[in-house]
Amino acid sequence: MWDRETAVSFLNSHASQLSHGRCAEYTRKAIEAGGVTLARHLAAKDYESSLRAVGFVSLGQMPAEYSTGDVVIIDAVEGHPDGHMAMFNGANWVSDFVQQHGLYPGPGYRSKRPRYTIFRYGIRWDSAGPPTSSALV
C-alpha cells in the first residue's frame, strides 16, 4: 500500500527552488518514501513500467484536475533527452525543484509541449463508468 501523504511530505522537504537536473531521482525517492520500491532507470521518461508495477495506473493526458500524489512523465525535448518526471503536491508539480509554471518544468518544455502521461495510484476501473480513486486497491 502506498501512502501519498508521506511521499508528498518527503518530496516537499527535499525540493529546491531551482532544478539540479535530478528530477527522476528526487521523484523516485519521494514515491519510495510512501512505501513502494521502483525499479531504477537512467532516464525519467523510462519510469512508466516501474510505476505500473507498483500499482500506478496511466490516466493519459487527463484529468483536467490533478490529485495530490499524481505523477507525470514527460517525453524528451531538445536539450533534455531524458524527459522529465514530477509529482503533484496539491498545489504545484515538484521534482528536485518546485515548478512555478505548471506541468511543464521549463521553457524548452513549455514551447515544445511534448506528450506526457499522468499516473495515479489506487484507481479502480469499473466497466460501468470512469476510473475512481480508492485507497483500498
Please render the helix and strand layout as text.
Blueprint: H1 4-14, H2 23-33, H3 48-53, E1 56-60, E2 71-74, E3 84-88, E4 93-94, E5 98-99, H4 107-112, E6 116-121, E7 123-124, E8 132-133
Antiparallel strand pairs: 1-6, 2-3, 2-6, 3-4, 4-5, 7-8
Helix pairs in contact: 1-2
Account of the 3D structure:
The radius of gyration is 14 Å and the shape is globular. It has a single domain (4-133), classed as endopeptidase fold (from Nostoc punctiforme). The strands form two sheets. A six-stranded antiparallel beta sheet has the order 1-6-2-3-4-5. Strands 7-8 form a two-stranded antiparallel ribbon. The chain has four helices and eight strands. Helix 1 (4-14) packs antiparallel against helix 2 (23-33). 33% of the residues are buried. 25% of the residues lie in helices and 20% in strands. It is an alpha+beta fold.
Q: Tags for this entry?
A:
endopeptidase fold (from Nostoc punctiforme); globular; two-stranded antiparallel ribbon; 8 strands; 137 residues; alpha+beta; 4 helices; six-stranded antiparallel sheet; disordered C terminus
